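User: Just a sanity check before I run the rest of the batch. Below are the structure tokens for the first item. I only need the designed sequence back.
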């Protein structure tokens, strides 16, 4: 998993509340277990008009937001089912950070497991940022995980809280597998001892 330390990036606005995971990545895109190639399904139902043409009002279809790495959105982002494809699709699109006043718990945890930093700011702070992002082309923010701060172009800073364990794992790029592999030597030593103490457990019974 890619570590997250500090990110300065273009911000894209999704000014909607209660965005659930079926809206982030609809069910027809859940057939794969690959973490790549999902960007085509990201917000699929919102990106197109009824005739199938791209909706020019949706932010992903606007040139000014191409290459955005920070998604700014509203309350209760990521609600609904626990599908891990939602953060996969966001990451495949290039988003490394999502800022909102609140997140659904499972989605919030899945972000940390996949190298995305979910930042919780106050509702009024998000609304202020939303206004600036929409009104200023090329608007960029700096998100510093170490200092737990979001900094605007004019130097205004917003502090966010994050669980110390999740912060440490994301800062070092460790998902659950990475954490386990830190103990690889101890695991290997245990397996050697176990084979000596209970060799019948390792007998090929074919």
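Assistant: Here's the designed sequence for the first item:
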């Amino acid at each position: 998993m890619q570590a997250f330390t500090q990110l300065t990036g273009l911000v894209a606005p999704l000014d909607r509340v209660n965005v659930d995971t079926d809206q982030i990545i609809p069910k027809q895109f859940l057939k794969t277990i690959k973490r790549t190639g999902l960007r085509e399904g990201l917000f699929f139902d919102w990106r197109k008009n009824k005739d199938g043409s791209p909706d020019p009002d949706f932010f992903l279809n606007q040139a000014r937001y191409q290459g955005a790495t920070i998604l700014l959105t509203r309350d209760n982002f990521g609600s609904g089912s626990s599908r891990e494809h939602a953060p996969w699709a966001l990451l495949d699109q290039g988003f490394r950070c999502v800022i909102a006043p609140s997140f659904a718990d499972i989605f919030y945890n899945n972000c940390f497991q996949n190298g995305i930093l979910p930042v919780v700011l106050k509702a009024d702070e998000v609304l202020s940022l939303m206004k600036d992002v929409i009104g200023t082309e090329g608007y960029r923010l700096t998100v510093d995980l170490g200092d737990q701060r979001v900094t605007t172009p004019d130097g205004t800073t917003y502090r966010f809280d994050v669980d110390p364990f999740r912060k440490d794992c994301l800062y070092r790029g460790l998902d659950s597998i990475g954490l386990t592999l830190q103990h690889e030597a101890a695991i290997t030593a245990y397996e050697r001892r176990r084979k000596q103490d209970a060799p019948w457990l390792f007998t090929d019974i074919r």
